Amino acid sequence: MTTPTGEEQLLSGETWAAFCETLRRSGEQILRPEAPHDAFTRAEGFRYLSRLLRIALEMHVEFADADFPGFFSPSHETAKIGADNPDNLYQYARLNGKHEYRVSGHRGTVSYLSFGTQKGGYETDGKMLQTGFIDANHMQVQADGSFEIVLSAQRHEGNWLPMDPASNALVVRQTFLDRKTEKPAQLKIERIGSSSQPAPLDPVRLHDGLQRAAAFVEQTSRIFADWAKGYQAHANALPPADQAVCQAAGGDPNIFYYHTYWALEDDEALVIDVERVPECDFWNVQVNNYWMESLDYRYHRICLNKHSARLREDGGVMLVLSARDPGVPNWLQTAGHRNGTLCLRWVGATTPVHPSTRVVKLETLKETA
Predict the structure, then answer these.
(1) Mean pLDDT, to the nearest integer, of 256-279?
(2) Where are the transmembrane segments (predicted)?
(3) pLDDT tens, 310-322?
(4) What DSSP string describes 31-43?
């Protein structure tokens, strides 16, 4: 018995049935025994799956044509993955490593700007491995702020972003110190030598895209549920993350990451202390829910960075996570959560400085303020 082709599965409805079945199965990640069982966390978990689906459909259906790539945002205010940085504007485009591409635009004034080509994907092997990287500190930018980058497997003069034949994505990180005052880079991407317009919808391509989209939801939710489970072993501490694991999941090579799980009572605070903030391009700390989505930074102060945090005179910093205002600087809000995950990152630090943590009663902090 032969396996039906993609077109035959689409015609019979099997494509859609398989898509829906994978999404149904994804819900098992929210019901894992080690995850919090309260209705609030479950609700956030199932909303998280719906958000992953929105991202997945843009990635594997709407913006999947590597001959006519376009940028979309894979993490933003209402769709989030793997400790998404609230200070970032993420942009993503699909590539084919056998082709060449041009990214052009204007640098803007954003604090940090990086471009990375990747291969793999959460929906396949659970990894997004770097195949090339360049940041604005190592780019030629014209006096008016304009620039071009060529993406190719063969070395190119000027700004060159390497690919290999398996490269399938470009990830751009624009990191703000202050979104109110900085201007993001304006970018466009095009395949060099492409035809004038895309072909009509290909039934087989849609079949493949829907299956990849559903697999993306299931595998992404599994990957970061595994991470959250592992962090529970050092709850309320903040040790260095496994940097190789972070990089294999698509991390920026200029970033040194810390991740943990936190759990607090209403009268408790998690104090994060850095003896001396290292020299670096950027740093921040952010609060996430259990599913590793940043908490709603539109309405709550759940992130502090190099610009917004208040340092001590000795160059160190103390950050405080609690449900209520502790009456000291650098308060991070739990935003109605009793537990979750947390991330600290140094960007471009030559020598990372590891933080220390402690859980204290809120009244203790007020007495010493």
Answers:
(1) 98
(2) none
(3) 999 999 999 999 9
(4) T-TTS--SHHHHH
Q: Which two tokens stand for residue 268?
A: 């408790």
The span from the CA of 237 to the CA of 356, in Å, is 7
Fold (topology level) of 236-368: Jelly Rolls (2.60.120)
- Looking at the chain, how many residues does it have? 369
Q: Do 191 and 99 contact (CB within 8 A), yes or no?
A: yes
Q: Which tens digit of pLDDT belongs to each residue from 129-179?
A: 999 999 999 999 999 999 999 999 999 999 999 999 999 999 999 999 999
CB neighbour class for 176 (10 Å; exposed up to 12, middle 13-18, buried from 19): buried
C-beta neighbour count of 124 within 10 angstroms: 14
Q: Are strands 317-322 and 331-333 parallel, antiparallel or unpaired?
A: parallel
Domains 6-191 and 236-368 equal at CATH topology level:
yes
Using only C-alpha atoms, the chain has a radius of gyration, in whole angstroms, of 22
Which pTM does this prediction carry? 0.95
